[in-house]
Amino acid sequence: MSRIQQTFATLKQQGKKALIPYITAGDPHPRLTVDLMHELVRTGADIIELGVPFSDPMADGPVIQRASERALAHHVSLNHVLEMVQAFRMKNTTTPVVLMGYANPVEAMGTERFADRAKAAGVDGVLTVDYPPEECGEFVRLLKARNIDPIFLLSPTTEPARVQTIVDMASGFVYYVSLRGVTGAQNLDIVDVAKHIAIIRGKTGLPIGVGFGVRDAATAKSIAHVADAVVVGSRMVQAIEQSSEQNVVANVAALMTELRSAINSN
Amino acid sequence: MQMYDFPDARGHFGPYGGIFVAETLIEALEELRAMYDRYRNDPEFLAEFEHDLKYFVGRPSPVYHAKRLSDHFGGAQIYLKREDLNHTGAHKINNCIGQVLLAKRMGKPRIIAETGAGQHGVATATVAARMGFECVVYMGSEDIKRQSPNVFRMKLLGATVIPVESGSKTLKDALNEAMRDWVTNIADTFYIIGTVAGPHPYPMMVRDFQSIIGIEARRQMPELIGRQPDAIIACVGGGSNAMGIFYPYINDKDVRLIGVEAAGLGMETGKHAAPLTANSPVGVLHGNRTYLMQDENGQIIETHSISAGLDYPGVGPEHAWLKDMQRAEYVAVTDDEAIQAFHTLCRMEGIIPALESSHALAYATKLAPSMARDQVLLVNLSGRGDKDINTVAKLSGITL
Q1: Closest partner CB to A177 (pick from B20, B23, B292)
Q2: Single pTM value for the model
Q3: A94-103: per-residue pLDDT in tens?
Q4: B333 φ, ψ to 5°?
Q5: What is the 3-state secondary structure (H, E, C) of A73-115?
Q6: How many angstroms away from the CA of B331 is the closest CA of chain A?
Q7: Contact with chain A for residue B165, Cβ under 8 A
Q8: Percent of chain B beyond pLDDT 70?
Q9: Closest CA–CA distance from residue A182 to any residue of chain B (Å)
């Protein structure tokens, strides 16, 4: 059983929902990332989504774009991100880490070399935003052969037949994008989300995470009603952006505590 | 002989092209692919396309024998395919006419586009105005500074120009931003991509709409010289004017196809925009796999060219494939060489070429002297240079 599967199994037993915060590796500074990861776990993260900075993050809104730019200003590469995961694993061997990023840095490293190194570093899942299932069969095979879960996005516009194709290829969990648009967009419609989640549940037993529009404790709580995991990205990155290096860890912890208690209050 | 038949059903040109986008865009691309499939051979659609090309754009564009220029270089005869004479001043309008007719049939009254030099933005604003559609153009704030006359043109045509401040603030970032708009407003918005890049079906669709250039040339050359030219030369940024003139000639194996990239300050300086000539690593950007200018970590690097329209780190996937198949050759000329060709054409023929097209011209003037006087080069003069007079004046130390 992979670390991600183990995490969801344990939560299910406890009747709890997963909280998955996203931060971009190297934002605001590479030396803070591992500390931030530990703090996320301490304040209630069940899985950490770690963004791999990319120069052209087409699917991201302005908040996560700026995080990428801050990280790239410190020359944070995929190599560095893997080193950060490795450093995190020195003290934490239980919390799953999912890398989220774009295809080009992975291809520049070489897909097989990346898969080997990700495994060695202790990565549990990989979400490559611009790899739709039709273009990444070989990559998914490489990941699965190393017991790394390939995570895929599903969107409100994904046709039911395509949902089936994607969930058949995915493992660990699937990530439902709760609205049309880029990361950090507004106006999440919870009734619509619930409807789509029901369709996905009809096709897979995989846990379902929901993200792209979780603004605050209230939306986190309402998502937790219908999904297995709540993914908080832009809001988390915003807290980082609005902090100084001195208070960033404390501010992230405060936001996490608020989100965790909202999700647990279900 | 095997006939050339690319891309495949999922947009692959050999290992290049494809659909590399987030799941949020897949349905919109599928809808576009299905609609384009339905209309690409539809007689009524094609009749309307041809009608607009004739009466609104002013096609066919002539092929002109640049006799003084040819005599000056003393070798092959240089002919120019005059895309600069099109309405709005470049080949870009051909594609915009095609895509806006598709938008009309899809019932999408909001048009968005990205632009670098502003030519595609102007062409998009033009077709949107004619249809009475809303038009939003994304343009890097660096390019807005470089191309202010085109920004004003777009505004005159009723378009909203949104400055893009992210990344390098140029064409690639404008493309990112237009994609973000599209994914957010898919229901009522049609994204007119201006070059033969992006996810399938864009590279194929833009090529098809632009291939009117080569179709005409293939008919015009025998009328003028009794045969096809020995070589066709076109500049390549994303590569739409080159694909447009190359494509109808792909099965004419005797005709050399030469794409000219921007060598900027010189290939050896690294400050260029020539991924094919430099043999850059293959990667994934803007929805397709192609040769890409990137660092060792897979981050896209900033490119350099005097010509904003060639200042792009990737290249259309079909060009990548034609390079690998050795059906087309790719070379690069520097900023200085392009500028020199720009001035030469002004003085020799009374034609002010776009800086983009000046790259193709520069290579033609290098190649011609090594050829016989009865050999023929056809240069795609993709645009006129009125938009570039500020850039050229500045280089000469003149403020307009």
Answers
A1: B23
A2: 0.97
A3: 999 999 999 9
A4: -125, 150
A5: HCCCCHHHHHHHHHHHHHHCCCCCEEEEECHHHHHHHCHHHHH
A6: 25
A7: no
A8: 100
A9: 6
Check pLDDT > 80 for residue A184: no
Q: Is the ipTM reported for this complex over the cut 0.85?
A: yes
Q: Which two three-digit tokens encode residue B8?
A: 């495949």
Please state the separation of Cα B325 from the chain's center in Å.
21
Q: A135 vs B283: CB contact, 8 Å cut-off?
A: no
CB contact under 8 A, A103 and B179: no
User: Is the per-residue pLDDT at B1 higher than 60?
Assistant: no
- CA B106 to chain centroid, in Å, comes to 25
Torsion angle in degrees (nearest 10) through CA of B122, B126, B129, B131: -140
Q: Report yes or no: B303 at the A interface, CB cutoff 8 Å.
A: no
Q: What is the mean pLDDT of residues B136-148?
A: 90
pLDDT at A191 over 60: yes
Q: Chain A residues with CB inside 8 Å of B184's CB?
A: 180-182, 185
Among the partner residues B22, B167, B300, nearest to A129 by beta-carbon distance: B22
B288 to chain A, minimum CA–CA distance in Å?
A: 10
Query: Residue A266 pLDDT more than 80?
Result: no
B20–A130 CB contact, under 8 Å = yes
Is there a catalytic annotation at residue B168?
Answer: no
Residue B220 to residue B224: CA distance in whole angstroms: 6
Residue B186, pLDDT above cutoff 90: no
Q: How far apart are CA B238 and CA B211, in angstroms?
A: 15
Q: Copy the structure tokens of residue B98.
A: 């095609």
Cβ pair A155:B26 closer than 8 A: yes
Radius of gyration, alpha carbons of chain A:
17
CB-CB under 8 Å, B180 with A182 = yes
Name the DSSP letter for residue A122: T
Using alpha carbons, select from B243, B198, B214, B213 the residue that is nearest to residue B33: B198
Say how many C-beta atoms besides its own lie within 10 A of residue A265's C-beta. Answer: 9
Collapsed DSSP state (helix, strand, coil) of residue B3 = coil
**Gyration radius of chain B over CA positions:** 19
In terms of Cα–Cα distance, which of A23, A19, A61, A21 is closest to A184? Answer: A61
For strands B77-82 and B376-381, give the pairing: parallel
CB B194 within 8 A of CB B115: yes
Asked whether the bond before B222 is cis by omega within 30 degrees of 0, the reply is no
The full length of chain A comes to 266
Q: Which residues of A are catalytic?
A: 49, 60
Closest CA to A25 of A100, A89, A94: A100
- A175: phi then psi, degrees, rounded to nearest 5: -115, 110
C-alpha distances (whole Å) from B276 to each of A72, A158, B290 are: 26, 35, 9
CATH superfamily of A3-261: Aldolase class I (3.20.20.70)
Strands of B282-285's sheet in order across: B12-13, B16-20, B287-291, B282-285
> What's the sign of the alpha-carbon dihedral B15, B17, B22, B24?
negative
- Determine what percent of chain B is predicted with pLDDT higher than 90: 92
The structure tokens listed for B111 are 């048009």
